[in-house]
Design goal:
By secondary structure, the protein is an alpha/beta fold. The chain contains 7 helices and 12 strands.
Length: about 270
């Protein structure tokens, strides 16, 4: 069993992941060790571990069999039909019984809101520094696998097509964001969020402007199936003191507003209308 605080997970099957890995090796004092894990060399620095697997990251449910860490940060590609150039971060998990890209039905990983906010802030800084002005920078809603029982997890991603995945500036931006996330403070008050589209523009803007860390985000398209059990799971599997519930007010139907307002107040959360 390999142990540590933070492990960065990359995949040989992922062009963006290999791009990000190359940048991490040049930006941080990782040293290749004589140890192999999952068939690939293990890299370590004083504080961090860098691991490469052969599988797609969304199907890496097996990691906890050999790794004992506080947090996994996945360096990943993002795919979309729109092929929008993007720099993204999110927590993994599935809100419904539909499991298209790994994980378990209606099971969430442990979210790390402070790491996600640190990543988002650095992605925004790097967007300016790298001249990626046409690129979207945001949180994504919680989605896809893998499922991990005891290790907090975030994804930091380059989207959304091979041209972007291999872009050196994007690779450097995400590598820098991953390093910021890896050294983030895990204390303080945090939030969960509801409503809006998958790319969460209002939630992302609020988090950046108010510096409010956000854990799990349930978008508009899952709210029909979202009950108290899943909301409790969002709270229990978000690291930190979950004080706030952010509501993209216009990004949900009135029936969802009424249901969520009652449930969230009953659970003692402070509601913030966006």
């Amino acid at each position: 069993m390999i142990k540590g605080e933070v492990a960065i997970i990359t995949s040989k099957k992922d062009i963006a992941s290999m791009n990000i890995k190359d940048k991490l090796l040049s930006m941080h004092p990782f040293k290749e060790t004589s140890n192999y894990i999952f068939g690939n060399p293990l890299y370590k620095s004083k504080q961090l571990t860098l691991i490469t697997i052969e599988h797609d990251l969304v199907f890496a449910d097996f990691l906890e069999e050999k790794l004992d860490f506080k947090t996994f940060i996945f360096a990943s590609r993002h795919e979309s039909m729109a092929k929008l150039p993007s720099l993204l971060t999110h927590a993994p998990g599935n809100f419904t019984n539909q499991v298209k890209l790994g994980g378990l039905p209606k099971r969430l990983c442990i979210a790390s809101p402070n790491a996600m906010l640190s990543a988002l802030k650095e992605l925004k800084r790097q967007q300016i520094r790298q001249g990626l002005s046409g690129w979207e920078v945001s949180f994504e809603a919680t989605h896809h696998g893998p499922f991990l029982e005891k290790t907090a997890a975030i994804f930091v991603e380059i989207g959304s097509s091979p041209d972007e995945w291999s872009n050196d500036k994007a690779g450097e931006a995400v590598a820098s964001a991953i390093l910021e996330a890896a050294f983030s403070d895990e204390k303080g008050e945090v939030s969960i969020a509801f409503g809006g589209p998958h790319y969460t523009p209002k939630i992302s803007k609020y988090a950046l402007n108010k510096e409010i860390p956000v854990g799990h985000i349930a978008p508009k398209y899952v709210l029909d199936e979202l009950g108290e059990d899943m909301i409790l799971q969002m709270i229990e599997r978000t690291r930190g003191y979950v004080k706030y519930a952010l509501l993209d007010w216009k990004g949900m139907r009135s029936i969802h507003r009424e249901k969520l307002t009652a449930l969230l107040k009953n659970l003692g959360l402070e509601l913030v209308r966006l």
